């Protein structure tokens, strides 16, 4: 037997001693249910290899960050997700946020837009402008970005099934402003796989959906080369109740599925992979989240280089946006949400995020008020300017706990990749409800832990204010919004060149059947003010609609 | 033994956030009720048709998209038209206090916000149905 090192003996002595201590009777697990030890030591990083496992920022495997200079060169983009009511309302909010020092825009659409219905469709009733802004045509997009120069600002759009159409709307707004599409910067979420898995805003079945996505990748590589074509999203997976490991694994599995689809469509991986970006959740468990971001970068880099044979280093590096966890907020004592959000945001910054949205304290009650949004933005500015954490890169590297947790999450993700492969890949796993069941189980377990008070949420199941009356202003959306949008649409339909609309929609239908790239056709429809609903309807008729296995 | 309480858990409108609906559906099932889950993207018409077909005691709707005023009032209206306004309509989601009050006045039962313990929902439904059955 090998002789014990001094540190091993010390470690054992500590373990014996600590056994005699009486711990507080609480759960010693991460929020995801992973056991946490009382102490981490060099023993937890036995075969740690700095060069192999971490490397330097801006270098493979990017565990420490994707840029050489990280926040010294440029801070993360402070990008508050926002949009509500009419395009005019949203334009006003954007100008307010930009005046307050926000550095990028992020558009929230209402449910009708997200599902591809115009504001005047019967299925849009009650939804217009409610949880985001209503966009039915290029005219609405022109209003949203009125007075906002698209060559100076980057815009992220949370849009999935109709992502191709909204990208074309944006390109067309750029044309009107005289901005070449090659100069446009921003992101469309365009991550349909996580819609089937978690967020549930789909239109078409998986196969035509994947075709639209590869069409976008091919089109954007030529026409909008600075645009992020997919924001591969774990955010919604986590919000639906997953653990950190599931968020990490399912998101990356989706990402690899897009890479495989692109390669299968005949694209060279290095033409589209550099434009893929990611989007993660920042939940409450501080170190678990930091480990998650670090593991994500390392896994992506390793797979992209080794498995998918990407040669361009830009294909290896994972850039990501983060949003603090909406599901961690409480409607009880809502001001406490400011503090939760601040810690979550800090984990994202320590994890090396490229952009960040901080939730507002009132979001469990309604869309945020201007005051609540301002506090959320100030939270980021305080982290950036006052806390000192942006001075040095990846300051938690080398922490026995964080490094061993980074390793553990990578292992857990690899185990999930294997399971998904055994099921026949991501789409097959969706069809048998694998992800949906894993997430529903985790969500239910978490809820039970809270109800049984094994997990404490301040203000919710402990430190409760008896007879609390929540007194907080909420943003109200007037029913007039729906009426105004419907009137505007009627006017648009009466005034545009309807012959041209019909002709371009017919061309689109032809392209859908022929299998040629849909994007140039959609752009042409867009320019003559064909509506979102009309464009989607053509594709609905050609591609059919997806139905979900209603599992609980 | 009393007949099992039958609950239709519905997601009306276009909202896809189904975490709450699924957690509540499981809790009601664990609480000994018969639960029918409609799945997503249902119109009020589809929900009421299912409620009638399944002969439920309760319709529980989950809405997080802000369309609650439209959806709840339409479901109430359709139940009434079909002579089924004995069915309790309850639910939850992101619903401001003022709207909860207005919906209550229309005839909607209790509405539960984020953070509600599932036991509270199970007990409320059990109590309300038993009371209605005793009449």
Question: Could you describe the 3D structure shown?
Answer:
- The complex is a heterodimer of chains A (552) and B (135).
- Chain A has 552 residues and is of the alpha/beta class.
- Chain A folds into two domains: 64-433, Alpha-Beta Barrel (TIM Barrel); 486-543, no CATH class.
- Chain A is built from 22 helices and ten strands.
- Chain A has a five-stranded parallel beta sheet with strand order 1-10-9-8-7.
- In chain A, strand 2 (81-82), helix 3 (87-99) and strand 3 (105-107) form a beta-alpha-beta unit.
- Chain A starts with 5 loop residues before the first helix and ends in a 9-residue tail after the last helix.
- The mean pLDDT of chain A is 95.
- Chain B is 47% helix and 17% strand.
- With 135 residues, chain B is α/β, with parallel strands linked by helices.
- In chain B, strands 2-1-3-4-5 form a five-stranded parallel beta sheet, with helices on both faces.
- In chain B, strand 4, helix 4 (97-106) and strand 5 (111-112) form a beta-alpha-beta unit.
- Chain B has five helices and five strands, in the order E-H-E-H-E-H-E-H-E-H.
- Chain B has helices at 19-30, 44-53, 68-81, 97-106, 118-134; strands at residues 6-10, 34-37, 58-63, 88-93, 111-112.
- The chains are: A alpha/beta (552), B alpha/beta (135).
Q: How would you concisely characterize the structure shown here?
A:
The complex is a heterodimer of chains A (552) and B (135). With 552 residues, chain A is an alpha/beta fold.
Oligomer: heterodimer
Count of alpha/pi helices of chain A: 22
| Mean pLDDT metric of chain A | 95
Distance separating the two termini of chain A: 53 Å
Give the CATH architecture of the largest domain in chain A: Alpha-Beta Barrel
State the end-to-end distance of chain B. Answer: 17 Å
- What is the third-level CATH name, the topology of chain B? Rossmann fold
What strand line-up does the widest sheet of chain A have? Answer: 1-10-9-8-7
CATH class category name of chain B:
Alpha Beta
According to DSSP, the number of beta strands of chain A is: 10
Strand content of chain A: 5-15%
